[in-house]
Structure formats: C-alpha cells, structure tokens
Amino acid sequence: xxxLLHLAAWALVAAVPCPDRFGALQxxxxxxxxxxxxxxxxxxxxALQERLTEEGKRKDRRxxxxxxxxxxxxxxxxxxxxxxxxxxxxxxxxxREAEVREAAAELAAVCAAMRDGLEPLERQVREGFHRIVxxxxxxxxxxxxxxx
Length: 148
What we know:
The protein has seven helices and no strands. By secondary structure, the protein is an all-alpha fold. Belongs to the ROH1 family.
C-alpha cells in the first residue's frame, strides 16, 4: 500500500505545478520499485513510473508548469496572450485587437477544457482518498487487531 501511495503522490507532483517539480522527478525521489515477479500489479506500476520519468525529461517540458497537457496548454496560451498585449500599442488597432481577442478566446477555451477535465479527476482523487481512509479504519477496527 505504501508503494502505491508513494507512486500516486509522485505522479501528482509530476502532473501539478510545484516549485521544485524537476527535483521531485529525480531518481533518488522515485518510489521504491516493487519486485516484478512477486506482485501482479508491479509491471504496470513500473511502466507508468518509467513513462512519467521520460515525460519529465523531455526538453519542452523541462521548464514548464507540469505534465498535465491542460496546464502546459494554459501556460502557452497565457504566454501568447501576454506577448500579444505587450506588443500592442494602446489603444488597440484593428489587427492587434483581433490578435488579443483571439489569444484571450484561446485561453478561455483552455480554461474551460481544464475545468471540465479536472473536475472528474478531482472527484476520483477524493473518492480514492476516502476509500484508502475507510480501508485503514476497517483494518484498525478489525477484531483480529484488537484481540477480540
């Protein structure tokens, strides 16, 4: 259970922005690898771990916010909008205004996609957490453990 929780936390660090995300993806922070032969779920877990590590090493993702494609797209759209605003003289002319509006609409679309995509993920993470807490509580309340 500890190995799974460690991998889940490590994957969330890789996916979501944090100040030292790249440091968290280094080899010495990797979850301990379970023995491949002993546990039937070990090979998929190790494959996921390797995939996340490789994705974190990609040059275009090295200095980005996180590995979630939505966060990456949000960062790119925000940069594009900031560049369009900085390059535009005040008041906005016709072409510049259209460019700024297009960048703002693209950013709004990415934000909507992020909201729509992350709400189910948030719900699944919450349900998983509650399931883990319930199983731990059931284990602590078991008659075997209490000596009843």
